[in-house]
Amino acid sequence: MYRILFLVALFLCMTCVPGTRAAVARNVILVTTDGLRWEEMFRGAEATLMTKTNGGVKDTNGLNTRFWRETEIQRREALLPFVWSVMAKQGQIIGNKDKGNRIKVTNGRNFSFPGYSEFLTGAEDPRIISNAYLPNPNTNVFEWLNTQPGFHGRVSAIVNWDVIAWVLNVGRSRIPVWTGLRLPENAPPPPSIPAWIPDALAGATPLWKDVIPDTFTAEAALHHIREARPRAVYFAFGETDEWAHDGRYDLYLSAAYNVDRFLSRLWTLVQSLPEYRDQTALVFTTDHGRGLSPEKWKNHGAETEESGWIWAAMLGVGVKPLGERVGGEEMMQGQTAATVAALVGMDFKAASSRAAPAFPY
């Protein structure tokens, strides 16, 4: 009897310890979309920007039909249906400032290279002051996972901003990365991609010099999951930031919707494959926010305070179904790296002392 009581007490103690996980994922997928504001994530489309004057909208009636609804909850569900119908119900979403739940970009620069470095390495680096093609001196979580038993050779990335290959420092980390654009000279061979993708990309009219359209990244990413079956993989999208800089709120919203569509396709694929089904965790976040309407939403940076707030969503094995988080202590962007590792049972903070701890998921 005493032994039974002891075991019951031990079990109850283990389940109430903060941070204790009931399960650990075998695989982890990180997805980011560049510069998507927390306002759209939690409030949906903003009326003041759904105009020709403030948002550069070409078809206001069509945009209203697609994304305008009477309430914020309805609007965010129209914009990001997978995030709010699946991730919010089966996992959790953090970063809604309206509900006192915050994630801060701590690098203070509030633009891409510092942000990507922060969420991939777990800490800000004051030496990173531009988006220049310079190898990141900091060890990132995917680089570290690639040194761990069971993960070596099973870590990769499919991204559409070419600078990310330098953020990941692929020459040192040896992580195979496909960008659709140039790679560092010392990069390892990129993941195999179907020939039709680079052929179609070559025939597409270039929109930006350093970012390819998200649709090519999405197709390459889904192919990579089907054929390579990586255990830790990073997929990055960029159109949300590009269309915002171009002052096209209609296309910014469309890009956000399409990334959500990719997440739905990705999760459906993951659940159809035995190596991933019920063995995978998904993290979705961004590198920085943006300014406020009617003008500052187009930009971000140190001078735009609001662009220092971001969001994150999590789903899958080990993630408690807490839904939309309310209140709590302010969190940091750097916690993403340790979270990616913790979801597969690894302690990145122990390996990198400067890294922030994992999100309390």
Q: Can you put this structure into words, describing what you see?
A:
With 361 residues, this protein is of the alpha/beta class. It has a single domain, classed as Alkaline Phosphatase, subunit A, CATH 3.40.720.10. The protein is built from 16 helices and eleven strands. It has an eight-stranded mixed beta sheet, with helices on both faces. The protein has a three-stranded mixed beta sheet with strand order 8-3-11, with no helix packed on it. The two termini are 35 Å apart. Mean pLDDT is 94; it is low at 1-21.
Report the major sheet.
8 strands, mixed
CATH class: Alpha Beta
What structural class do helix, strand and pairing data support?
Answer: alpha/beta
Strand arrangement, major sheet: 5-4-6-1-7-9-2-10
Q: Please give the count of helices.
A: 16
Q: Name the CATH superfamily assignment.
A: Alkaline Phosphatase, subunit A
First-to-last CA distance: 35 Å
Count of the domains: 1
Can you name the CATH architecture? 3-Layer(aba) Sandwich
| Beta fraction | 5-15%
Shape: globular
Strand tally: 11
What's the CATH topology name? Alkaline Phosphatase, subunit A
User: Uncertain runs with pLDDT below 50, 5 residues or more?
Assistant: 1-21
Rounded to the nearest angstrom, the radius of gyration is 20 Å
- How are helices and strands ordered from N to C? HEHHHHHEEHHEHHEHHEHHEEEEEHH
Give the helix level as a range of percent: 25-40%
Give the overall average pLDDT: 94
